[in-house]
Specification:
It is a single chain. The chain is of the alpha+beta class and 83 residues long. It has a single domain (2-82), classed as Alpha-Beta Plaits. It has helices at 2-19, 47-53, 56-62, 72-82; strands spanning 25-33, 36-43. Strands 1-2 form a two-stranded antiparallel ribbon. A hairpin with a 2-residue loop joins strand 1 and strand 2 (36-43). The radius of gyration is 18 Å and the shape is elongated. Keywords: Ribonucleoprotein, Ribosomal protein. InterPro entries: eRP_eS24_sf, Ribosomal_uL23/eL15/eS24_sf. This is 40S ribosomal protein S24.
């Protein structure tokens, strides 16, 4: 599957780039074709700056932020049972 291959290549590029500077790095929109890889990356000065600027879904995807355990549907169901 091409999408799986893209994610593997993006992970390899991400790991190699993380070896260079000691700063938070967020990569996205990767395209691969043959020996070439293209994508977009943001490098932040500190982790706090990245947490303030990056959207929460990207932080969860990168493993920096923790996802909520309970969904809204589950909360509504519990509220209806009580009422």
């Amino acid at each position: 599957n091409q999408n799986r291959l893209n994610s593997v290549i993006a992970d390899l590029v991400r790991e190699r780039l993380r070896l260079l500077p000691q700063s938070p790095l967020y990569l996205s929109k990767f395209r691969t074709a043959g020996p070439h890889s293209r994508g977009f990356g943001l490098v932040y000065d500190t982790k706090e700056a990245a947490m303030a600027c990056e959207p929460s879904y990207k932080l969860r995807k990168m493993g920096v932020a923790v996802a909520k355990q309970d969904s809204g549907k589950k909360k509504n169901k519990a509220a209806k049972k009580i009422a």
